[in-house]
Write a structure and sequence with these properties.
Layout lengths: L4 E8 L8 E9 L4 E8 L2 H4 L4 H10 L5 H10 L12 H11 L20 E2 H9 L2 H10 L4 E3 L6 E3 L3 H7 L2 H4 L5 E2 H8 L3 H10 L2 E8 L2 E8 L35
Antiparallel strand pairs: 1-2, 2-3, 4-6, 5-6, 7-9, 8-9
Helix pairs in contact: 3-4
């Protein structure tokens, strides 16, 4: 190349250092001809910019996942920030805001509509099921409702699918779902009331609300075992002790916006 190129001239534009710009590269050939190229200089922000493939992944995930879940998915997929750091809720949120990426799963609800992952705010549960805020909190505490909450003071988002509504309004219980009353479940499984709630929250037991006479009661069935419908089995015979009030699940405060 030294036999071909006689001179190289670099001309920098007036952009301040670190802010990028264009550099003009002039090549003087031994033949007397000149060639000119323009090369873009990266800025300091370019050096720490998030790759487009990661931005697109965040853009896709934000339509069905909250920022904390997006961070977990990105980390599980082996993706890191430009600086090599693991993704967190705050870092995902900052990247979204910087690049104007909207989310369909906000932390703070806007109205009573569901968000991108199908979860609904507390007010929607109160309205659709016809219960008070304190009852919603109690059911979340017991595991009768599946709830997600980013932090202690953040609003709760609750799963309320058609199946959940059927569990709560007595429809499924009327068709034989719910193998044991809560006290009977304690006796059969050898568990305390709190241990029953722990298994409900873990998904090992499924809770069904039943309308019996003039009152409502909760019943549970093992999640891995088909529920018994009328004609295929009956609920265990209960004594008067079984029919006494079961230890109530403590009410929990549900934060709202």
């Amino acid at each position: 190349m030294r036999c071909l190129i006689r001179e190289v001239v670099l001309l920098k534009d007036e952009q301040p250092r670190g802010q990028g710009g264009l550099t003009t590269l002039r090549l003087g050939w031994c033949s007397g001809a000149w060639s000119e190229l323009q090369v873009r200089r990266p800025s300091g922000a370019d050096l720490t910019a998030t790759p487009q493939r990661v931005l697109q992944r965040i853009r896709d995930l934000a339509q069905g996942h909250s920022d904390d879940h997006v961070a977990g998915i990105l980390t599980a997929e082996g993706l890191r920030t430009k600086r090599g750091l693991p993704w967190t809720y705050l870092r995902v949120s900052q990247i979204r805001l910087r690049h104007g990426i909207p989310t369909a799963c906000p932390i703070v609800p806007k109205g009573t509509g569901s968000r991108g992952d199908g979860l609904v705010p507390v007010e929607a549960v109160m309205e659709q099921v016809g219960i008070s805020r304190s009852v919603v909190g109690s059911w979340c505490r017991c595991g009768f409702l599946h709830a997600e909450q980013k932090a202690a003071l953040d609003p709760c988002w609750i799963r309320l699918t058609a199946e959940d509504r059927a569990r709560l309004d007595g429809t499924l219980a009327a068709h034989g779902y719910g193998q044991w009353r809560l006290r009977a479940a304690q006796q059969v499984l050898g568990l305390s009331a709190e241990e029953i709630y722990v298994q409900v929250r873990a998904g090992q037991l499924v809770a069904y609300r039943a309308h019996v006479g003039a009152h409502w009661e909760w019943r549970v069935s093992p999640a891995e075992q088909p529920d018994q419908a009328p004609g295929r089995g009956t609920l265990p015979t209960t004594s008067m002790a079984d029919q006494q009030p079961v230890q109530q699940c403590p009410e929990a405060t549900v934060a709202t916006s």
